[in-house]
Amino acid sequence: MTDHNHHHPAGGHEHGNHHGDGLAELLDLDAQVLGSYLDAATTWAAELAPAAATIVDLGAGSGAGTLALAHRFPEAAVVSVDKSPDMLGRTLEAARRQGLSGRVRTVEADLDASLPPIAGADLVWASSSLHELADPDHAMREVFAALRPGGVLLVIEMDGLPRFLPDHLHAGLESRLHAALARQGWNSHPDWRPGLELAGFAAVEQRAFPATGSPTPEAESRYARAFLGRIGPALAGIASAEDLYALNRLLDDDGPDSPLRSPELEVRGSRTAWAARKA
């Protein structure tokens, strides 16, 4: 799922070694508003590993991927791995509410130290977590060793930071903010294919998944405020004073005519996934 102040802060998921105030809410909102990719990606996972009995979600965050996998694979046991006990607690509570308690368990682990014992896994899911690790190549080799023959590693990344604002607002404010974050390495990840192949995987496939949904305007507004509020402190001294002022004005305006409540507010995003099989 390291701290998210130099990578994308939502995930969701989506994850890595998650921590930080407000991150759980942000991950939940990301899954609620842009979660359609979860349906498509887990459908693909079921095509790749239809008989998966043991599934591991590495860097599970608030558990959106864990729960989606548990629903997609009704006979499988799903192991949710994250550094944060608070995130894992949220996952277990959500699993209980959704009737999945008997099939979801959690493991607290710092993925930068080593992978937890996951030998015999049929499917490993790593959504927005691999790029968070200090040595992702080592992690891919460990996953390869842990998978059963024929097992699959599915890596998912955001193609870019989520977008909310119309382009005309403050003459392209959001694009400038994203450019400033990119210079700080936010959401930075490589094409994982070469690393997966070096780790020993074969038959690496790649797919793109639009991240859309049909959320309520209230959920879209909450997600926009949560995300933009989280990036503000990271932009101090990096973005221009004028852009920071405009961002703060947006966040301070909670009135009925606020741009963050406008019908023009539209959340956009997309994911890329790499599926790699152990021969």
Automatic annotation (TrEMBL):
Q: Which GO terms describe its biological process?
A: methylation
Q: Where is the composition biased (Basic residues)?
A: 1-10
> Compositional bias (Basic and acidic residues) at which positions?
11-21
Stretches for region Disordered: 1-21, 254-279
Q: Which domain of life is it from?
A: Bacteria
Q: Name one GO molecular function term.
A: methyltransferase activity
Question: Which Gene3D superfamilies does this one have?
Answer: Vaccinia Virus protein VP39 (3.40.50.150)
**Keyword Electron transport belongs to the record:** no
Question: Which part of the chain is the Methyltransferase domain?
Answer: 55-151
The protein's UniProt keywords, in alphabetical order, are: Methyltransferase, Transferase
Name it: Class I SAM-dependent methyltransferase
Lineage of the source organism?
Bacteria, Bacillati, Actinomycetota, Actinomycetes, Micrococcales
